[in-house]
Amino acid sequence: MLTTILAYVLIAVFSTGERGLRKGQQAQPFEADSFDRQSTRRLGAAYAISIIGLLAAPFLDYWSIGAIVPAWVGWIGLVIALGGMALRAWANRVLGAFYTRTLRVTEDQTVVQNGPYRFIRHPGYLGVILMWVGAGLAAINWIVVILIIVIMSLAYHYRIQTEEAMLVQSLGQPYAEYKAHTWKLIPYIY
Q1: What residues in the chain have per-residue pLDDT under 50?
Q2: Is 105 helix (H, G, I), strand (E, B) or coil?
């Protein structure tokens, strides 16, 4: 139960901390560009469903529905969530003014290849996925973990496809070359 409460705190810290990571005028608005193709809304829906799952976890555990017996799983989940948050913050800081809430390209946009972007093209997304999966593990309920994994995987798969189409169209050959030597999220896998 303590790990579940701490997972709630981490999600709240993430939600409030995200605003501080956004730099520049392009990062602030929620208005979606034509490139976005509803991907931001899909992410918002995935976050909402995941929050509902996390809030339902104590009730499911109380009724012994999907409860994970070893409590240490929750502590591992918190470590994974913190690692994900750190990766997200690092990726956002490296992007700087190019980081936005919705998919859009600025006039001076370049292909960022520093920090975690040397290895994977979407480290911020990987960080958020790890944070949510870690929070699910912290809730110590396998139903919630599976729900979060499925929902976040679907939402971020669509987001990555949409974003990469935008970047190839907008940045052309430099982004195509970058894609040729990096992975989307997980080296040697995806």
Answers
A1: 27-28
A2: coil
Q: Could you tell me the sign of the dihedral formed by the alpha carbons of 160, 163, 166, 168, in that order?
A: negative
Radius of gyration of the chain (CA): 17
The answer for residues whose C-beta is within 8 angstroms of residue 156's C-beta and 6 or more apart is 43, 46, 122, 125, 128, 129, 185
* Calpha distance 151→17 (Å, rounded): 22
Contacts from 13-16 at CB under 8 Å and sequence distance 24+?
Answer: 13/85, 14/85, 14/88, 14/131
Whether CATH 1.20.120.1630 fits 2-103+112-180: yes
Per-residue pLDDT, 121: 93
User: Could you give the CA distance from residue 2 to residue 10 in angstroms, rounded to a whole number?
Assistant: 12
pLDDT score for 28: 47
**Taking the domains of the chain in order of start, what are their residue ranges?**
2-103+112-180
Angle among Cα 158, 133, 22 to the nearest 5 degrees reads 65
DSSP SS3 for 31: coil
- Cα separations in angstroms, 10 against 75, 124, 154: 13, 16, 22
- Residues in the chain, total: 190
Q: Which two tokens stand for residue 4?
A: 């579940």
Tokens 């859009």 found at: 104
